[in-house]
Amino acid sequence: MCDAPLGRGGSWNSDGIIIFAPTFESGLFQVPSSGGTAQPVTKLDKSKHDSHRWPRFLPDGRHFLYIAITHNTARDPNNGIYFALLDGKENRLLMQSDSQADYSSGHLLFLRNATLMAETFNPKTGSLEGTPSPIADQVLLDPSTWRAALSATEGGLLAYVSGGIAANQFTWYDRSGKSIGLAGEKVLNVNHVRISPDGLKIAADPGESLFDIWIYDVARNVSTRLTFGPAAGTAPVWSPDGKWIAFNHLQDGYLNIYRKPTSGMGQTELLIEGDEKNVQNWPSDWSPDGKSLLYAVGDLIGAAQLWELPLTGNDRKPRHLMPSGFITRDARYSPDGRWIGYASNESGKFEIYAVPSSGIGGKWQISTGGGQQPLWRRDGKELFYLSSDDKLMSVPLKLNADSVQADAPRALFSVANSIAPVSGLVAPYDVTPDGKRFVVITGEQGKSFPINLVTNWTAALGK
Questions:
Q1: Which of 28, 91, 101, 107 would you call most buried, defined as having the most Cβ atoms within 10 angstroms of its Cβ?
Q2: How far apart are CA 104 and CA 106, in angstroms?
Q3: In this structure, which topology does domain 168-443 adopt according to CATH?
Q4: What is the pLDDT of residue 418?
């Protein structure tokens, strides 16, 4: 019907109108169910929110609920459930919340921590008229998307998933896909994972605070927080000597890139400052000689472009790599620094390509059938990537002086149980320097998440 490249929910009324969030950083839009051009419904107030999501039409088909959130701070007091009209004449806060609300049988359904609550609600006036009552405990909540796993109908059916607040884990796999252990502790949110150059540590951006970098010592099973306060961040990238980590941070509506010593000592240094033209900046990789940083400029969904920042010398002007109208992202230097592997949608879907880092020479397609998130083995003889059907792929390579000779890709194992979606927004896996082990972000192992269906759920109120 229309594009929704990284959608955050939708709702369909009886008049054939669908309201939805097309990305993780947009207001709500509407589109006819017959298809067409999406039109904006809500407008972001970026001083408070950077996303409207998980809309829910109310019975009249004109009023609706949605949650407005900010990625800048976990449990921000501005996060909350809003009551709005399609024509924009009404749009106001109902309550603070860290997950979406639903409606059923004259009640607003919402979560407090992981407890499902119901409160008498007038869907025409948007007024709460009673005292909240608990309905179910330990409802599954994904804090990384502000999403509770529940759904209800006007007729009194209620479905929800048990599980409580979802936690993630770093799971080690061998090349056959066999799980060979865990790394680090359970955490509430993980978006990126990067193994240090010596293979002894893991950098990630997990935790209840969504935007802090932590470093996990694999051998000692000890975690250390690296970033704090205004320069906290996400998307960590190790320097080749392991002494620095580059990361980005949302500051005043812009994603800037910083670096900080991995020792935790010393000041955070600003590398790239966002502006009205380049709002989002995402670090991708550090060159093997330590002299350059690859990064993507754009939203990684519809407008990302690759840039390279010199980190030494007098000329620190960024260089735009491969300017085009296509998305280019997920860039990684080859171990010798002479090549760059990256993902581009120039063929109509994302594939993995390799080009000379000098910018002079040809281009070679590495993947077939779709690919994202390329990683090189330390000796440069193999490249890994994630396929469009969530398989970890391997491509043996020979890097010649002026060309890349790639064998046919083969699947190693599926990462479909990865908790992180395969996209340019996250780095859900990494490989050890010898290419024999992989760390993958997964859900809690051994934990079941049953779906519960309750009929006539209002009969339980007050009991």
A1: 28
A2: 6
A3: Neuraminidase (2.120.10)
A4: 64
Question: CA–CA separation, 242 vs 196, rounded Å?
Answer: 6
Tokens standing for 179?
Answer: 């799980």
Tokens coding 406: 């790639």
pLDDT at site 422: 47
Residue type for 96, please?
Answer: Q
pLDDT digits (tens, 9 = 90+) for 255-288: 899 999 999 888 889 999 888 777 788 999 999 9
Average per-residue pLDDT in the chain? Answer: 89
Do 10 and 55 meet the contact criterion of CB atoms below 8 Å apart? yes
Contacts 24+ apart (CB under 8 A), 133-140: 133/461, 133/462, 135/109, 135/457, 135/460, 135/461, 136/160, 136/452, 136/454, 138/114, 138/162, 138/163, 138/164, 139/111, 139/114, 139/115, 139/163, 139/164, 140/114, 140/164, 140/166, 140/449
* Of the candidates 412, 396, 394, the residue with the CA atom closest to the CA atom of residue 404: 396
And the tokens for 149? Answer: 């796993």
pLDDT digits (tens, 9 = 90+) for 138-153: 999 988 789 999 999 9
Torsion of CA 141, 144, 145, 148, to 10 degrees: 0
pLDDT digits (tens, 9 = 90+) for 91-104: 999 999 989 999 99
What percent of the chain lies above the pLDDT cut of 70?
93
How far apart (Å, rounded) are the C-alpha atoms in residues 274 and 289?
26
> Which residue type is seen at 62?
R
